[in-house]
Amino acid sequence: xxxxxxxxxxxxxxxxxxxxxxxxxxxxxxxxxxxxxxxxxxxxxxxxxxxxxxxxxxxxxxxxxxxxxxxxxxxxxxxxxxxxxxxxxxxxxxxxxxxxxxxxxxxxxxxxxxxxxxxxxxxxxxxxxxxxxxxxxxxxxxxxxxxxxxxxxxxxxxxxxxxxxxxxxxxxxxxxxxxxxxxxxxxxxxxxxxxxxxxxxxxxxxxxxxxxxxxxxxxxxxxxxxxxxxxxxxxxxxxxxxxxxxxxxxxxxxxxxxxxxxxxxxxxxxxxxxxxxxxxxxxxxxxxxxxxxxxxxxxxxxxxxxxxxxxxxxxxxxxxxxxxxxxxxxxxxxxxxxxxxxxxxxxxxxxxxxxxxxxxxxxxxxxxxxxxxxxxxxxxxxxxxxxxxxxxxxxxxxxxxxxxxxxxxxxxxxxxxxxxxxxxxxxxxxxxxxxxxxxxxxxxxxxxxxxxxxxxxxxxxxxxxxxxxxxxxxxxxxxxxxxxxxxxxxxxxxxxxxxxxxxxxxxxxx
Amino acid sequence: xxxxxxxxxxxxxxxxxxxxxxxxxxxxxxxxxxxxxxxxxxxxxxxxxxxxxxxxxxxxxxxxxxxxxxxxxxxxxxxxxxxxxxxxxxxxxxxxxxxxxxxxxxxxxxxxxxxxxxxxxxxxxxxxxxxxxxxxxxxxxxxxxxxxxxxxxxxxxxxxxxxxxxxxxxxxxxxxxxxxxxxxxxxxxxxxxxxxxxxxxxxxxxxxxxxxxxxxxxxxxxxxxxxxxxxxxxxxxxxxxxxxxxxxxxxxxxxxxxxxxxxxxxxxxxxxxxxxxxxxxxxxxxxxxxxxxxxxxxxxxxxxxxxxxxxxxxxxxxxxxxxxxxxxxxxxxxxxxxxxxxxxxxxxxxxxxxxxxxxxxxxxxxxxxxxxxxxxxxxxxxxxxxxxxxxxxxxxxxxxxxxxxxxxxxxxxxxxxxxxxxxxxxxxxxxxxxxxxxxxxxxxxxxxxxxxxxxxxxxxxxxxxxxxxxxxxxxxxxxxxxxxxxxxxxxxxxxxxxxxxxxxxxxxxx
Amino acid sequence: xxxxxxxxxxxxxxxxxxxxxxxxxxxxxxxxxxxxxxxxxxxxxxxxxxxxxxxxxxxxxxxxxxxxxxxxxxxxxxxxxxxxxxxxxxxxxxxxxxxxxxxxxxxxxxxxxxxxxxxxxxxxxxxxxxxxxxxxxxxxxxxxxxxxxxxxxxxxxxxxxxxxxxxxxxxxxxxxxxxxxxxxxxxxxxxxxxxxxxxxxxxxxxxxxxxxxxxxxxxxxxxxxxxxxxxxxxxxxxxxxxxxxxxxxxxxxxxxxxxxxxxxxxxxxxxxxxxxxxxxxxxxxxxxxxxxxxxxxxxxxxxxxxxxxxxxxxxxxxxxxxxxxxxxxxxxxxxxxxxxxxxxxxxxxxxxxxxxxxxxxxxxxxxxxxxxxxxxxxxxxxxxxxxxxxxxxxxxxxxxxxxxxxxxxxxxxxxxxxxxxxxxxxxxxxxxxxxxxxxxxxxxxxxxxxxxxxxxxxxxxxxxxxxxxxxxxxxxxxxxxxxxxxxxxxxxxxxxxxxxxxxxxxxxxx
Amino acid sequence: xxxxxxxxxxxxxxxxxxxxxxxxxxxxxxxxxxxxxxxxxxxxxxxxxxxxxxxxxxxxxxxxxxxxxxxxxxxxxxxxxxxxxxxxxxxxxxxxxxxxxxxxxxxxxxxxxxxxxxxxxxxxxxxxxxxxxxxxxxxxxxxxxxxxxxxxxxxxxxxxxxxxxxxxxxxxxxxxxxxxxxxxxxxxxxxxxxxxxxxxxxxxxxxxxxxxxxxxxxxxxxxxxxxxxxxxxxxxxxxxxxxxxxxxxxxxxxxxxxxxxxxxxxxxxxxxxxxxxxxxxxxxxxxxxxxxxxxxxxxxxxxxxxxxxxxxxxxxxxxxxxxxxxxxxxxxxxxxxxxxxxxxxxxxxxxxxxxxxxxxxxxxxxxxxxxxxxxxxxxxxxxxxxxxxxxxxxxxxxxxxxxxxxxxxxxxxxxxxxxxxxxxxxxxxxxxxxxxxxxxxxxxxxxxxxxxxxxxxxxxxxxxxxxxxxxxxxxxxxxxxxxxxxxxxxxxxxxxxxxxxxxxxxxxxx
Lengths: 510, 510, 510, 510
Hints:
The structure is a homotetramer. By secondary structure, the first copy, chain A, is α/β, with parallel strands linked by helices. Chain A folds into 2 domains: 6-37 and 50-265 and 474-491, Aldehyde Dehydrogenase, Chain A, domain 1 (3-Layer(aba) Sandwich), CATH 3.40.605.10; 269-462, Aldehyde Dehydrogenase, Chain A, domain 2 (3-Layer(aba) Sandwich). Chain A contains 15 helices and 23 strands. In chain A, helix 5 (87-98) packs antiparallel against helix 8. Chain A starts with 6 loop residues before the first helix and ends in a 14-residue tail after the last strand. Chains in contact: A-B, A-C, A-D, B-C, B-D, C-D. Chains A and B meet through helix 6, strand 3, strand 4, helix 10 and helix 11 of A and helix 6, strand 3, strand 4, helix 10 and helix 11 of B.
């Protein structure tokens, strides 16, 4: 086992602004999935400390909401600059801590940069509507106002970007943020957060009192800390990324206190490949979206629904591509598949494979652990492809790993029905060069997912569109388009500037 | 007691398309609050019948979602025409059944007409966005697609308009509707619904198969019927209007099954009157919004927050106005205040008055039952004004009746804080001709309600703006602006029409 | 020659509200292209009368702009109802006066109905934006306000719908309209206008003073009348439909007085047919868009750009379809091709055919006059198809008649370049089921036209989208989407409600 | 006379990237209005060279339009960074070359930075709409595509910001730019442009071929150079800032070739001061907007329309404020009023004062030249206030200098009529704390200007709103809101993905 942490990683963390000694504790043992080495032992915040944290955010809200949005935009601009500057380092922390390959670690930081720029642009918009009134001497408008403290509870698989998605919008919209990173990825969260802290410091230096204490806070800890956020009536919006199970608990809790929530839960994302598909393009997309991040993206491809006429040809190409995948240390540039996050993930994968076989599936490749000699504490698996006779129970279940089910279809309607016949509704795609097929897939009778792509895989969304899914995925949206509206409260204002008091709907009274 | 129903009311119902014999049963005794006379005895649908109802809606959805939106718009246009034609009759049913004065009954039908026209306009919009992509040969768009069956559960106080608000949008958006009217106001619901049925008949005559069976259904019944809708995973959206207590039950239930909901719950609406107010205008607005619908609007004025310098002058005018209010049979054109919905409402009002007095309040006028001789089974009260020393517990509670609390303030910030210091967040207003006061009230640091008006009362919204409130009011919106989006599902589509497969965020893979 | 007009047509006109005796004069001889029969002789307004007309509109503007937009919406709703009621009659007037087949005459009235409903929906929108400010205690909003009198100058080929497109939006936006119909189609204009007059009468009956004198005026006359509108500084917006030559004169005139204009000028619309096209679908679309309205739509198909591999197959089908086209009296239900508007149009067509032959073209069918025996004063031609070796000068010229040039291509880029290599930029389309081809055609490097369709012809737009074209087509838009903004003036409002006076861009002054 | 240029200014220019030797010529003598010193002698581009410039832009367009918008956004981000870095230097060049005080020079650079950030945000938006279709199996969308080369012709008074406003949007929208700065301010233009060139160099280093030759060009020269741009059919959009006289020439020229244009022409901006105004706030706003940039902003305050009851009080305060204005070298931090741009401006001012006196005006202060001893070649004037008995001819004329006319009114309607009764329609404002007055001023019956502010002066707009004016100001908009749409072409796409060919408006054909 390596030292804790290695000298060079220590330097990386320091450049990221993470001072381990100050954070050291006994609660959280952070291990790299690469080799199981302990990267840090951190203190967790006790739940009892949460009221003070939440109070600080509540106080900060009173000030921050009054800071003009374009000035708030300057803060996210500075954050974006800091992230840009620290991109290589933060990317490396992510790779070490969650096992993503270098390119994906960097991509995640880039996504954080992108959303900062997007939020900067929003900072002079946040548009409501002016509306004509039915009454003389009246006008209507709607304004969007800051909402209140926002809690961002994230999962290990996007330990930096998802926080940035939420925080950049929340901050521009006038809200303080409290960030609860995954227990499995606190360092990545810290690295992203520290860049924000540096931005706040610069901002404060320029604008003085504008950035209040408590504007951005990070809380390391377990589910009790998360629950404190979920349950607090002071937290206006809970944005939580994780499992459907988690969402099924969080949603009702927040609803019962009339809070707002953004839930980004499970996905069980399919790709349709039709006879009109460019199979080589499809293969490249399948590989990236099924094995990227070792199949641990919420948008990872899990189901391949292929027309029976092209199934064999596609599988031939796919198996060949899988056979050449370089699995190993994600910090090595040539690696395409890194380790699973931990042993539990490995076992869950094994379990799903076993169930699938019981349900008639035939394992075409992969599934086995590899590199166990080299990394006895790292859980690397050869990405698996499983041919299924039908969409059985296990196929409808989200298994977080590089396990791809293959199903076949005859008529496009069947394929769409198959795409939709799972509880989750995050992402989906079709590979086809046939306009009618493509448009049918995108139509009201097509994919029921929040994202439906054409000739690209289900994962790897740009930040310009709204991200999120339907059904058990949660139904909410974050990132681009008008997702920012969820971070604000809308107020409808009718202004009478006449000397009369006409009533709406022509009512005469008195 | 009058006969069941009177001959002339029978004729009204018939003109509304309500065939009582077919509906007759023993479950629901519908009584007019005017005199307690039983208007009808109706059969309730057993909960066991709900799965078939819901299945019919689910089947209808499969067809209706494919009908082009502008064609769906034609249906709501026809509905609007039917409502316009039946306006006087439906208005009268409403007045008889829930005790609104004639003008308000008519206004409610007008509101239904208005939303049909608004929905007609939407039927050629339902705009998503086209979005530029960061990748060559790619484009992004978002489309809004039909959502699924919508349940509309309404309260007695807007027995027609709230259904129309929801159904007109739902139908144009491609969704079937199931309408569960209040047990206290099934006839008003039926009258509004029958107009839709006639529109569907005309529509079907013209377009044939376009309007499927099960597109619009009404279910008369109790809370078991409502629960069947709330709990069914086939109901995509539950739109429920009622008490905060109801919403606190419904919200988590719907959340636990990942459904969507629109909650329109309690309001505790305040008016600020500043020294810069036009007091005569304010008095007129107070009277309409505090005693209109006998104080039983969700947007009724309940709290008057007056600057101490003008408090006495305002009260003088107000008491004079209250003294001249004509209370009585709401069907008489001169009447301004009709009866409470039932005895329970009367008792709750008495109870609130008693509590308020215990908490230091001084009853300035009203509160007592009147016309008991004439209408022994009708509960008419003289609208009450209660001077309060502070915003005590009872003031923070919504009492559904003509009870107005008066509070005073010195600094505008206090008044705004007082406005906000209640659990509800529906509507609010300021009377002032002072720009700074007004804009402060509308600003991020101002009213925290979903609606904040200037120089008009908190009630009587136009349908062009979004209607709804924050906090315990539920947080959702219906009616105008972009409220229609809640009745649809959004899909983000990224289309690759190139021969390459570039990844977002510049990631290089393989 | 028939009497003037026939008894039954007299009845039609009367039902349309047109009292010929009151309009009779010697200036305008209105002839039916069906048989050259004179339908009416009408008095033209002398240019000297125009100042009074324009003054009336100017006065009306002062009042109409203050009528709330939803109330203005009620006027267009009533207009829509009147049009719906008179649909058959107005349709017949159009068919008689400009020679459209019955279905197209009715379609034009339907389009007028549609835009009234669309405008009705807008009447509660007309949304500007609320915008966040960079300064504390400030907010920004933009409002759209009525613009002023709008002149609508239309062409013979859409004698009713184009007026409705403009007038419905103009009226809802708060502007009076002055309608100058084509000298060739005053009766169709009058029929459409009279429906508006009836709506105004009903509106006035309900709202009293709301609909001012001068709100809607029609002026029959020649180019001097049109020029009076173009040149008047009181006419805020000139919306003119016609030839590029006309637009080249009108545009600079309006610009020189800083007026606004909407120009809808010539089109030279192409269809690309690729090897991936459904040829049968293409043939149907070609026939409708090339011969519908006898090729006299601004969106008529004039150029067919076919891949050489499918050219012969397409031509075979097309020639067969052309051979079966029923040419004749447009009032007969079975007729698909009616007459040209007049002899000049016929001569221009002959001239174009001759030039095309000189430039290497080969006439594949049609072009000759038919039915001359039956209708010696009616100019019916067999729709022509001309095979061209290249896009020569005459092909780049818009000939208003059923003359279709056929060109071939090898690479899609060539076809797109060919589509774009004409001075006009109105409409275009591609027939292909190949996604890449289709999206390329719609992309930034694709068609440069204002409208680019897929698998439908270039003509027959729905009113939900913006209608209009680039380059010599004028560059403006009318009808759907946000075209209404051109009928309003935008005002950007920055409101300071603080007690400070901070400057934008952080400037310190004094 | 100082040397050409002074050593320190040479250094400033060099830091701005301006290599004078390479630009040196005999055509343009650039003089500082501070002291008349010649700053540079530059070569002008002969008109004969313009076709090559325009061809280069045309070629660049073919490439640049295909670069994804978010990548184009990266270029404006880099430009913003370069401007931020060079802010002090560019600000100084502006101050020296056009005589603005330091704060205003810096503010102009800040405005350029702001628009770069705004454009960056747009680079992931550029939203068109998706629209529902009336036909089954059809959908509609509109896309905004790059337009073509954009010419930006600017005036001396905003020699940097106006170029940035236009270029940042044009570039993000996919268009090359050709910048023709004022002959009086080429160095400021160059300084701003050079920052863009540096950004392009960095961009090219990162993205290779993405930034084509000819993407951004600057042309120094006279009116022949400008005319070459105005007349070229290759220039898709001419954005010209300057006098109404210029616009009256440019508008028709561009219209005659069916080009697009943005005209920002003369303003004659008024402030209403009502009895409900905060007079001290008004005085501060008047001083900044009437004397800032020595009254040479297009948004400078030129007309003060004061209620007669507060006129004297306001004038007392105003004269006192004017008396303390520090006039002098704009590079000195304490200076508030710098020189006029040149002697011609001084003479025009004198001439206006003389005419105003002939028309009954009474000069209350200022108007005379000052500091002539110190700066014999600099034209400094004491800001003038002229009391006018009525809005005479000279008052309706825009005089570019610190000359403020004072008018009085009794009724608000008069004041609004007075505000509107000039040919120009750029900016306007009201000082009042009275809601009714304020809203009336902002209403459809209020100010007819493109900008109408409340409690801030007419000048100093933020970039978030649309900037521009009505009537002789040109009618166009640039900068914020949706002004970007003018830099793009809109295409309406109807896509049929069914196997049928239904026609719009329900037409049956064949």
